[in-house]
Amino acid sequence: MISKKLFFEDANNEVSEEVVNGLQDRIKEEQKEIGFYSLPTDSNETMDKIYKFILSNNSVYKGKIKNLVILGIGGSSLGTKAIDTALKHTKNRNDIKLIFLENCDPNEINSSLKGISSKDSMFIMISKSGATIETTSLAKLVIYKFFDTLENPKLKKRFLIVTDEGSPLDKFGEELSLERFYIAPNVGGRFSVLSAVGLLPLAILGYDIRKLLLGASKLKKSFFDGNEREMVQKAAYLVQNFERYPINVLFSYSSSLEKLTAWYVQLWAESLGKINSSGQSVGLTPIGLIGSVDQHSFLQLVIEGPKNKTVTFIKVKDFKNSAKIPNVSIKNLEKTDFVNGLEFAQLLNSQCEATLETLIEKGVKVDLIELDTLNEESIGSLIFYFELLTAVAGVHFGINTYDQPGVESGKIKLFEKLNNKN
Amino acid sequence: MISKKLFFEDANNEVSEEVVNGLQDRIKEEQKEIGFYSLPTDSNETMDKIYKFILSNNSVYKGKIKNLVILGIGGSSLGTKAIDTALKHTKNRNDIKLIFLENCDPNEINSSLKGISSKDSMFIMISKSGATIETTSLAKLVIYKFFDTLENPKLKKRFLIVTDEGSPLDKFGEELSLERFYIAPNVGGRFSVLSAVGLLPLAILGYDIRKLLLGASKLKKSFFDGNEREMVQKAAYLVQNFERYPINVLFSYSSSLEKLTAWYVQLWAESLGKINSSGQSVGLTPIGLIGSVDQHSFLQLVIEGPKNKTVTFIKVKDFKNSAKIPNVSIKNLEKTDFVNGLEFAQLLNSQCEATLETLIEKGVKVDLIELDTLNEESIGSLIFYFELLTAVAGVHFGINTYDQPGVESGKIKLFEKLNNKN
Known about the structure:
Shape of chain A: globular
Oligomer: homodimer
CATH architecture of the largest domain in chain A: 3-Layer(aba) Sandwich
Structural class of chain A: alpha/beta
Helix content of chain A: 40-55%
CATH class of the largest domain in chain A: Alpha Beta
Largest sheet of chain A: 5 strands, mixed
Order of helices and strands of chain A: EHHHHEHEHEHHEHEHHHEHEEEHEHEHH
Radius of gyration of chain A: 23 Å
Number of helices of chain A: 17
């Protein structure tokens, strides 16, 4: 389903058996407190609620809904975007248009709202705290633009809420009798894609969320059975060498994985960029690249620039449905004949291999993740792989992986700035 | 039009008048050899040819063309994508759909080609060398899928070429009597957006390319008049401190600038990631962020993580057409009332200011670029600003800014891999 391989021996040499065992033990402790570990199994209940809801509103979803609008930002939108972008070419995906109201950029708002009406659209407002300023502002716009008043009975059918139980947003929904789905309090926003945050919209879009959870469960079981030793080695190696290699590049050889790399960037950056218990600023800077496009952009820097980067490749073994390069030789373009008759997928994967081998030759620390194909199960595994990798790195850094204290001062500054203006 | 401000005095202290003057002198020398410097004026001729071509094919562009398909990758597509994404909300943009055939990802190819026919589509194949393997492979697919044979007379009307004069692609086009537009040989791919590479598709999309060149000209004049001293200081400071601050973040507070940051990432990474004349690997790692979205992702790492980043903010002063946040207080959500009645643009720009001030307080080296508004002229200036900044940094690094020798070995490896398979 997904397989992983490290191409550098340092991880084995520098990370002892003892360290690996110690990290695994600490994760076993941590999972008692931290909610994301339980999502692959605990979300079964959420899933049942979601499917029951969809079934009882079946008439709404069969043909009537053209647009699914997600009001959410950061952890409330990135996971859904990642999975939908990875899988939208698959057969389960229905033809509902997915729209994100995320940024308060006026041009984006105008273009997102174009062609939407309350008749053919479903809105899901997602905010863990219930007070995310972008999301509440956009929700006010949507409510007054499409429903006129809070008392409009259509709101009940068209406006769903995902939040923490007891949050201001939960109370708001309760007041208006809106359908609400909860995030467990110990599940952080960026670790929440396998909760209702991701599962609700993904189920409405037609994806098999049971398979998504199954993929995550398998990876989790493999980890706790002690079979993900290389993942722990990799995380430990990256942490131990974070000053030498401050940057970790995720180089995905498929355009379908573009938003999944963005999801990984959030997870890695916001979880690990912290002041540790000794007061030291730690963290690793994530960069997402897409192959082969970024061979024509960023790769030159990786190869000839400062050797401050490790690179993780992702490759999809079977694209299922690949067009072929016509097997014709064109006068003056004969130089390109060596790819004639190949599937485009073969060209793409050969580019991945050629780049990976080049980087190994240049002495770059490289690892490879291979997906058998893009489907709910493999993406579920991949998501849980990155969540566990981040958790292990956080434990080894000696930080709180699950908070984000650094961004609070900016929020206070924003409040002061605008509160004084009004 | 665009204004720039450095918020750290080190640049002034560490970069002497002498260094600034020396760098400016070396740029004056370099511009005699390197083509991009002349584009703001030399492209007038290209522009005339483009407008003449569009006028003589007016019937084609008035209503008949629904899709403009760009076959190109890296420098052949990023610039057009950057400018179109920045300006597609403006009045000049007509309603032709812009499609990129760029990556050899099978899913992307399938979804891009959906709904295209030769009747309502125009194709532009762009490759400086004329032998880019992704582009020629996709061109073969397009030609045989939509035109059946090379002899199809429709090809002449629908298939344009942008390349170097005398390249294999030029000869291919000559053979078939296709319309060709040239890139000057001393203009590199990633510096080519103000040549036919960008101007041809952008003119077809309705943009005022004269204004784009005007914006670039103004910035160029300002630089050579000695009025861009701070830009030179900034470039020199970044180069002198590249080991202390290996990462430069471009934090654009507008979703419209998302692809422009991707264009900047290519420009900066591929131009500066080099082995210098003393054999040292140099370069700065660029990262593109979008505000306020990435406040919920990457910002935590910038604030609390290792202090290895400088940050350039981009802000748009006037969004022209911003929706307002409804001035209503909703029960349970009163905490968010402090933004009631504001334009979304005000909220976005206040977020930019709050984040910028926070980073200054945390001791991060920050600079700010402000655009009066998003239009052809301001984007032309911004593009030329980044090109000059990169050129100055390259000169100070003592490298060849305009080649990309590092990626050649991967291309050879790919050829060997696939040539042996066939």
